[in-house]
């Protein structure tokens, strides 16, 4: 059974003619019969080429925090871009946005980029230049964008290849990466205090940075154990390692000040993207004065023709203004709690052991587990096939989460109580069919 209607299917065939697999990001390819062509969005809804409406819980992989096509954001961008979009000089818009980010996120300095990948890539360079060391730690199941250095043991990695927890193997997530890069990357299982401390005490002289998604936003929203991020902070401060919070998914979503505010921990560098621009392409590297000032013309490079361009920058100003002046995250959390409670009840009623890791604005559904997973390996003990069946049944009925349980459900401020109730009714029906 395909989830494509006739027009979607015809358009997708055309897409296959001109784009590898008919998409502009591999993550959007769900197979020739299950890849959707989206034509428009409004608030919490998106429509496909057959005019079918979905309650959207993918929200473009997370950016849309206010709702699709938010009128204020769109209008501000429309007005601003009439006067041009790139000048290769700093604009007052960039000053305004960076001031907002420093205030909301309690950071000293900011540099703007366009995508999360650009932000993490530069953050790694800054950390290496600052520490004068070359290796870095990341965690299994975490994704930090498409740059070669990060493409090991991501959420796309085969968990069977990860080796023993005591001695994890870096699993390359794509062809096309030079072999030598592997030597600079140390992957550790998340939430393992002992492994973290052991690795750092043995190798700190080589380690420039720890890169961490404070919650596993690419592995179903697995949360840090109490004290784990604090331990990271303590070890980084002790051994001169740059702590980088990759807040591309959590920034301006977990709280106005992101995961730093939510967990009450300050990293040395933070990367933002996604919710920062409500769907417009804009990202940022931010952090402490002494670390950010490693950037130095002629010595430590950061650049980009479109960094700070008017389109993304004005969208972000408008988005952050709304986040600061309206109870956006509170509203989303309220709806998210109702949704999580409802899903929990339905799964319990259906006798399906499950966990819902994460926070109400972005949470995962892991079925077939008795306890909440603590790392990527434990997440994989869940019933991914049942989830995939469920997701396809939901999509048939007009509720659109990602087809893969690793991707959390994302909520936006436009989601109403009625949308939550509609989702739960559909969830109930879809689950019955998926179970069969
Ligand atoms: C935590 C994290 N970091 C970085 C990225 C890369 O961001 P982008 O896709 O904007 O390059 C992503 C994308 O999903 C992400 O989830």
Quick overview:
By secondary structure, the chain is of the alpha/beta class.
Written overview of the protein:
Helix 12 crosses helix 13 (417-435). The mean pLDDT is 97. The chain has 13 helices and 16 strands. The protein has two domains: 37-69 and 327-435, Aspartate Aminotransferase, domain 1 (Alpha-Beta Complex), CATH 3.90.1150.10; 71-325, Aspartate Aminotransferase, domain 2. The strands form four sheets. Strands 4-10-9-8-7-5-6 form a seven-stranded mixed β-sheet, with helices on both faces. Strands 1-2-3-15 form a four-stranded mixed β-sheet. By secondary structure, it is of the alpha/beta class. It binds pyridoxal-5'-phosphate.
Named once each, the bound ligands are:
pyridoxal-5'-phosphate
**What is the beta-strand fraction?**
5-15%
Q: What fold name stands as the CATH topology of the largest domain?
A: Aspartate Aminotransferase, domain 2
Tally the structural domains. Answer: 2
How would you describe the shape?
globular
CATH class assignment of the largest domain: Alpha Beta
SSE succession = HEEEHHEHEEHEHEHEEHHHEEEEHHEEH
Please state the second-level CATH architecture of the largest domain: 3-Layer(aba) Sandwich
Q: Give the biggest beta sheet.
A: 7 strands, mixed
